[in-house]
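Thread: "does anyone have the structure for this chain?"

Original post by V.I.:
We have the sequence but no experimental structure in hand. Need at least a predicted one for the grant figures.
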Amino acid sequence: MKRIHKGDEVVVIAGRSKGQRGHVLRVMGDDQLLVENVNMVKKHQKPNPSLNQAGGIVEKESPIHVSNVSLCNKENQPVKVKVRFAADGAKELFYLEQGKEVKFRQVKKHS
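Reply from O.Q.:
Generated one for you, tokens below.
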């Protein structure tokens, strides 16, 4: 099950961008994410006059594996999110904070 969705704030916990945080721009497949201003690469781009694009070296985000990021709580600390099912069959995401469960998000029930 996908625990990270578009718009979530995440922190990188492994790799060359470790410690950086940003919002998820796009979820690519089951295991790749595009995170804002994280895992930046330089790309050599040819000019394209029909699209009015200039050539040169452009910096852009590169996909990062979902295992290298963690969701952030309200204090921007990385947390491990767990899943449980509610009585109506909907999935609830929660994390533990000082021994108490804190609700993170409720995923709608699929019909």
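V.I.: this helps a lot. The chain is about 0% helix and 50% strand.
O.Q.: and The CA atoms of residues 2 and 50 lie 39 Å apart.
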